[in-house]
Design brief:
It holds the Pfam family DAO. By secondary structure, this protein is of the alpha/beta class.
Length: 441
């Protein structure tokens, strides 16, 4: 697996029962388990592969408010505070720091859009600074270019994707709850119409509450329960380079390239929004729902290959509870990065930031970004399966808002006052069209 990931030791024996079972050990799943365990619940988290091994370790690591859709801004703001508080509460290091995020542009339309967002964000108590050409050139001096303008969001930051989810998993276990790797959830059992147990490959856990935080696997799991959840994945390719480039911003976005400083002094490089659509049975099934998204973003997307079909995460198959499932045949989604995209990304980065020529490529990887038709996550209990809570479809935003999402899910689970208004995330909204509702950013 080329994406860097800190590995941890976890328990093997399953508990006979739990107050809640979390399915999926990505950033949303671990933070959900953490906030439930802090409230005194006995939690069991089951992960088919390794903690944080899929998209939670394959992203840029940005934790931002800047340019968030209005529906996500409140939870993004709360998440920044929770990232900081987590370190103070646990002593665990996720690599989070408020380094500020820098955006530069020579496109007037783009700058006007950022200015409108700034005006909106001010009403929500978020501070972001528009940069004129002189200020942009100063902050972007590593490029040696002139810029028409930009944005700097000083309170935003980054965390380390290679160690964030494992750090939270360790905190869960310190609180007395359990984490189980290489343990796929196969399905559920119900009693009197309500969820009463989770069936895994290693046994059954009795519980009245389960949270599906399985990322790209969520829709196919929901299908086993008769729950229709429109979800499609985009394959995104990025790379990392070694330390050695001096004078670069910690986090920079331009139309050509985006970079993020890593904990080892190197950088992650990516082209924002660039992705491949690997056709799958599930994508074909939900193609009508995703038409508005495609119309909005078709310039950034290109046809992929058959890898997604073979991976099995977007299958329409039904599986049995007493036999291996596609999740056990594909423990970790580790798609091949698109070579031309990796090469283009590196060329663009070195052209924009000449000091990167002193570095070498250390790794290149791809991940499947699970998306919803409107680009906003689905968080909420499924009415047809009482006790089953969906938390998926984070559309490439899950890492940054992971703490807030986990806190909100814990609120929903325990009946506490919600961290933010959950109505914008209600999965029942997918019963209607996404036209006019696709996230702006």
């Amino acid at each position: 697996m080329p994406a860097p990931l800190q590995k941890i030791e976890t328990k093997q024996a399953l508990p006979e029962s739990a107050d809640a079972v979390i399915i999926g050990g990505g950033i949303v799943g671990v933070f959900t388990a953490y906030y439930l365990a802090r409230r005194g619940l006995k939690v069991a988290l089951v992960e088919k592969g390794l903690i944080g091994a899929e998209q939670s370790s394959r992203n840029w690591g940005w934790c931002r408010q800047q340019n968030r859709d209005a529906r996500e801004l409140p939870i993004a703001t709360k998440s920044l505070h929770l990232w900081e508080r987590f370190a103070a509460e646990t002593g665990e290091d996720t690599g989070f720091r408020r380094c500020g995020l820098l955006y530069l542009s020579n496109n007037e339309t783009e700058l006007e859009g950022w200015a409108r967002w700034r005006d909106f964000a001010t009403t929500a108590g978020v501070t972001t600074h528009m940069l004129d050409s002189v200020q942009a050139a100063e902050r972007g001096k590593a490029s040696g270019r002139l810029w028409k303008g930009g944005v700097f969001s000083p309170s935003d930051g980054t965390a380390d994707p290679s160690r964030a989810a494992p750090a939270v998993a360790r905190a869960i276990m310190k609180l007395g709850s359990s984490v189980h790797q290489n343990c796929a959830a196969r399905g559920i059992e119900t009693t009197a119409g309500r969820l009463s147990a989770i069936v895994t490959e290693k046994g059954t856990i009795r519980t009245r509450t389960a949270i599906m935080a399985g990322g790209a696997w969520a829709s196919s799991f929901c299908r086993q329960l008769g729950v229709r959840f429109p979800q499609a994945s985009i394959r995104s390719s990025i790379l990392s380079v070694s330390a050695g480039a001096d004078g670069l911003p910690d986090a920079l976005h331009t139309a050509e390239i985006s970079i993020t400083r890593r904990g080892d002094g190197g950088f992650t490089l990516a082209i924002s929004g660039r992705g491949r659509i690997d056709p799958t049975p599930q994508q074909l099934r939900f193609s009508k729902e995703f038409l508005p998204m495609f119309v909005r973003r078709w310039r950034s997307l290109a046809p992929g290959g058959t890898e997604g079909w073979r991976s099995g995460h977007e299958s329409l198959a039904r599986w049995r509870l007493d036999a291996p499932t596609p999740m056990e045949r594909m423990r970790i989604l580790d798609p091949d990065p698109h070579r031309n995209t990796v090469a283009l990304t590196h060329r663009r980065a070195c052209a924009l930031l000449p000091s990167l020529a002193a570095t070498t490529i250390t790794a290149a990887w791809a991940g499947y970004i699970d998306s919803t038709p409107d680009g906003v996550p689905a968080i909420g209990e499924i009415a047809s399966v009482p006790g089953f809570i969906l938390a998926a479809g984070f559309s490439g935003h899950g890492f940054g808002i992971g703490p807030g999402a986990g806190h909100l899910i814990a609120d929903i689970t325990t009946g506490a006052e919600p961290l933010v208004d959950p109505r914008a995330y209600d999965p029942s909204r997918f019963e209607n069209s996404a036209w006019g509702k696709v996230a702006d950013f």
